User: Which sequence fits this backbone?
C-alpha cells in the first residue's frame, strides 16, 4: 500500500469535499466569497477530511454526512489559519501570498469569523448533538491553546506537559474530533468511538512533533524552509525541550539566553544545531514521535481488518515519515 | 412607567445573567479568563439580555433558559466587539482601555474566538435547533455585514439600501434574534414569533440610526464625544445620506470630496454640520427613526397587554429618546 492507493480509496469523497467547500460560500457580500475562495483554491491537503471519511468508512458509514461534516471541519481549520496568519503577520501560506497579505488584516479576521459561523450553521443542519459538542469543545480548545502558546513564547521554563498541551490544542484535538465523528457516523460502540478519538489525538500529536523536529533538523532542500523559524518566533518545541534535558548546565544556560534575549542570528542557530547534532536530538525526539504513533496504531486493533483500517494504519506512519 | 420601573421587572434575571457571564469563564488557560472577565466587568448595559428576557416573560416563559441564552448572546456580541476594536485599532471602550490596548491584538482576537466557541457550546447544551439556527445565521450576518461596511468605507455612492444592510447586520439582527428567541421560549404561535423578530429588527435599526445621528448632531456635553467620529472613519450614515438627498449639486460635490479625499479636519466637519443645520437634517433623519419605532411598536399589538409588553413598548421609545 502506498499513499496513492490510500487516496484512491476516497477519490470521489475528496472531490465532493472540494465542491462542498466552494458551494457553501454563498454570502451575498461578494468580498467574503472572494477571500474564502482564494484560501480554499490555494490548496491544502485536506488531511482532516481524509481521516474523517476513512474513519467513517472503516466503521461502515458511506453516506453524505461525512462530506458535509468534513466541510465544517475545514471551515473551522481555515478560520484558525486566517486568524493565526493575522496574529503572526505571516506573508505567505502554502507558497502563495497569505489572505491578510492580499486583503488586509481587518477583512481576514472577519472572514475567519464568517467561516466559524458558517461551520456552525452547517453543524446545526446536521443536527447531531454529540458531534456538535465535540466540535464546539475542539474550537474552544484551539483558541485557548493559541493563547497559551502566546503566553509561553520564549518562556524557557516551559515543561513537556505545557508543550503537549499546546500541540494537543493546535493540532491533535481537531484530528481527534474528525476520527471520533467518523466513528459516530458509523454508529459503533462507545469503546470504538473512544479508540478512534485516541487514534486521531495521538496521531495529531505525533504529526505536530514531527513538524517541530523538521523545523530545526529537516533537510532544507526537502522542506523548502530555512531551519529555525520556531526559534525566531520564540516557540519552544520538542527538539529544544529534548536538548535542554540532555545538554550540560552551561550549554543549557547559553541556549536559554539565546531564546530569551537574542533569538535566531545565524551564529546562535548554528550553536543550537551543533548541540542538537552532538546530543543526537533528532533520534531522541523521533523516539517520542514513534511512541505516539505506536499508541495511535494500537487504537486501531479494536476494528475489523478491512482496507480502510489498513489505509488509516498506513497514514499514521506516512504522516510522520522522514528520511532516515 | 420609567426606565427604573422596567429594569426592576427583571432585576433578578439581570443579576443572574451577570453571574452566568462570569461563571462560564472556566478556561484552564488563565489569561483567557482574565481578558474575558476584564471585558465583562467593564460593564455594558446588557440591552440584548433585557430584550430577550422581557420577550420571554411577555410570552409566558420565566425559566432559566433565557438567562443561559442571554449569556450566549452576550458572548457573541462581546466577541464581535473584541474583533471590531482590533480592526478599528480602538484604544477605549465604555470609558476604559480596550482589551486590545491592554492585552494586545493577538490575545484579543483569540479571546473573541474563544467566546464564540463557548457561546456555541452553551447553545448546543440548550439543544433547541431553531434557536441554534437563528444565532448561527445572526453570527454569519454580523461578520458579513462588517466586511460590507469595510468595503463601503468612504464610498460616496452608498445607497440607503446599502446603509440599511449594514446596520441590519451590525445591530438589528442580534436584537431581532433575542426577541425571537424569547418568543420561542414562550412557545407562542409562529405569527407571534415573527412579530417579535420584527419588533427586535426594526427597533435595532432605529437604535443604530439614532446613534448615527448623535455622532454628527448630538450635544457633545451629553454624548461625551466630539462630533464626527464616523466622518473620520469614512462611515457614511443616515445624516450624511439624508444631507446628500437635500443639498444642492455643488454642496453635494464638496461633501463627497471631503469624504473621499480629506476626511475630518475641523473646517470640513464644520462645513458639513452647517449644511446639516441649514437643511434641518436632524429632524429629517429623526423622521426615519420614528418610522421604524412605529413599526416596532405595532409588532407588539398582537400580544396580550401585560406589564412586560408595556415595558417593551416603553423601551422602544427609550432606546431612541433624545432632547427635543
Assistant:
Amino acid at each position: 500500500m502506498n499513499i496513492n492507493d490510500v487516496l484512491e480509496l476516497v477519490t470521489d469523497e475528496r472531490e465532493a469535499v472540494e465542491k462542498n467547500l466552494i458551494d457553501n460560500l454563498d454570502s451575498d457580500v461578494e468580498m467574503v466569497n472572494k477571500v474564502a475562495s482564494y484560501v480554499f483554491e490555494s490548496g491544502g491537503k485536506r488531511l482532516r477530511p481524509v481521516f474523517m471519511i476513512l474513519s467513517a468508512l472503516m466503521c461502515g458509514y458511506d453516506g453524505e454526512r461525512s462530506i458535509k461534516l468534513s466541510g465544517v471541519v475545514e471551515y473551522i481549520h481555515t478560520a484558525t489559519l486566517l486568524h493565526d496568519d493575522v496574529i503572526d503577520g505571516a506573508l505567505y501560506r502554502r507558497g502563495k501570498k497569505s489572505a491578510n497579505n492580499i486583503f488586509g488584516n481587518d477583512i481576514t479576521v472577519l472572514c475567519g469569523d464568517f467561516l466559524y459561523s458558517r461551520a456552525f450553521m452547517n453543524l446545526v443542519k446536521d443536527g447531531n448533538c454529540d458531534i456538535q459538542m465535540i466540535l464546539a469543545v475542539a474550537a474552544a480548545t484551539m483558541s485557548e491553546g493559541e493563547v497559551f502558546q502566546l503566553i509561553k513564547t520564549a518562556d524557557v521554563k516551559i515543561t513537556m506537559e505545557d508543550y503537549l498541551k499546546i500541540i494537543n490544542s493546535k493540532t491533535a484535538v481537531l484530528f481527534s474530533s474528525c476520527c471520533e465523528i467518523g466513528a459516530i457516523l458509523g454508529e459503533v460502540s462507545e469503546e470504538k468511538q473512544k479508540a478512534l478519538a485516541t487514534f486521531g489525538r495521538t496521531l495529531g500529536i505525533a504529526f505536530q512533533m514531527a513538524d517541530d523536529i523538521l523545523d530545526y533538523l529537516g533537510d532544507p532542500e526537502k522542506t523548502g524552509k530555512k531551519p529555525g523559524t520556531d526559534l525566531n518566533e520564540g516557540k519552544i518545541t520538542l527538539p529544544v525541550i529534548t536538548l535542554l534535558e540532555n545538554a550540560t548546565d552551561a550549554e543549557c544556560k547559553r541556549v536559554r539566553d539565546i531564546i530569551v534575549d537574542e533569538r535566531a542570528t545565524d551564529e546562535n542557530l548554528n550553536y543550537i544545531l551543533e548541540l542538537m547534532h552532538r546530543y543526537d536530538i533528532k533520534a531522541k525526539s523521533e523516539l517520542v514521535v514513534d511512541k505516539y504513533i505506536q499508541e495511535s496504531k494500537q487504537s486501531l486493533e479494536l476494528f475489523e481488518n478491512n482496507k480502510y483500517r489498513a489505509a488509516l494504519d498506513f497514514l499514521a506512519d506516512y504522516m510522520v515519515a522522514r528520511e532516515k
